[in-house]
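Supplementary Note 2. Why include the ligand at all?

Several targets in our set were suspected to adopt different conformations when bound, so apo predictions alone were not considered sufficient. For every target with a known small-molecule partner we therefore ran a joint prediction. The input for pyridoxal-5'-phosphate is given below.
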Amino acid sequence: MKAYQEMTREELQAEYKALLGEYRRYQAMDLKLDMSRGKPCREQLNLSMEMMDTLTSDADMTCEDGTDCRNYGVLDGIHEAKVLMGDMMENNPDNIIIYGNSSLNVMYDTVARAYTHGIMGNTPWCRLERVRFLCPVPGYDRHFGITEFFGIEMIPVPMREDGPDMDLVEELVSSDESVKGIWCVPKYSNPQGYSYSDATVRRFARLRPAAKDFRIFWDNAYGIHHLYDDHQDYLIEILAECKRAGNPDMVYKFASTSKITFPGSGISAIATSDNNLVDIKSQLKNQTIGHDKVNQLRHVRFFGDIHGMVEHMRKHADIIRPKFEAVEEILGEKLGGLGVGTWTKPNGGYFISFDAPEGCAREIIAEARKAGVTMTEAGATWPYHKDPHDANIRIAPTYPSLEDLRTAATLFTVCVRLVSAKKLLADMKKKAG
Ligand SMILES: Cc1ncc(COP(=O)(O)O)c(C=O)c1O
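The joint prediction is reproduced in token form.
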């Protein structure tokens, strides 16, 4: 089939009519499918069930240094968990604090601390007239949710295949003291699955911020979440690079085992410089006596070491790779050459990013919903839920079964074609009239 833009009005009308029939057939199927959130599926969760057997009632609950994990204490996490997370994050265990069950929670706390008490002696953000954050777009909705909650002004920065537009980032960070942070998902980004190039990371490490308390919020949520053994993205380690560039305190790095073991019941961590650690702990000690050490120990006993974790991630990949490939195949088959959308083909992570023709995303998602397929809401990948192009749609292929995913993805392509054809016909009418 030729591209919609090359069709005559009559051809496009015929296509639209046929699509309406197809859409109605899907509607009659009474579907209830969900491609909205990046959640592991049941089989993935089952991979970690043996972790529950590592700490039975007769288990030895003492850590290597003699700490009894059942009791209070150890603010920054047990040593062996720091080693495990350190290997996973490619950081020195001494530069890590192990937190609770969610890295998003750590990010929230990190912004909250800067807001109420300031970073390393700087003025708390709540006392400043204006605080701004750079937000590579499309990006992760929950990041934007945190900064919106604190009334921090968000500035969208375009994402490219090799990372954010660094010319713009450098210009804004170095010229504007109110720019205090940037949200980054540097590897297998949410939603495109892009990874920052060496040059991008090096430019990040060499930023010259106008604000002394500017920090890079480096959320490496998908650092070891490869889909392939042979095609894996590589990311330069940012803490070491910042140190090398004379900017040791400029980055907070976050990660968790949410999509390794159990989301909501994993362990999370921050890795950062010695100075930042002192600053963080001065607050943290008032917030908690320590996070869940039993869960930390459970994770360590289950994986043994990073090699155990890497092996485990291969099993995840074996389950979700066919799902990503099924979506890519269906998009290619049904939309290829029609000029009604582009999409990413990531080597890892949890998402595929789809860009519909301008002004169509909201309606595509609404049509999909009416036929029983839930997608992430339109605009979610932009600050304030406002996609100025109304184009970006995040596809999350991991949760549904392969069969459901095929149905949902096919219906999605019908909605894309239907809405795109409708829009083009309306444009033609406008032009003619
Ligand atoms: C980029 C990114 N960061 C963080 C999270 C949430 O992490 P956690 O479960 O550790 O709070 C997600 C979940 O989708 C994510 O995509």
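The longest strand covers residues 153-160. Residues 38, 102-104, 140, 185, 190, 219, 221, 256, 258, 263, 268 surround pyridoxal-5'-phosphate (CB under 6 Å). Comparable summaries for the other entries are listed in the accompanying table.
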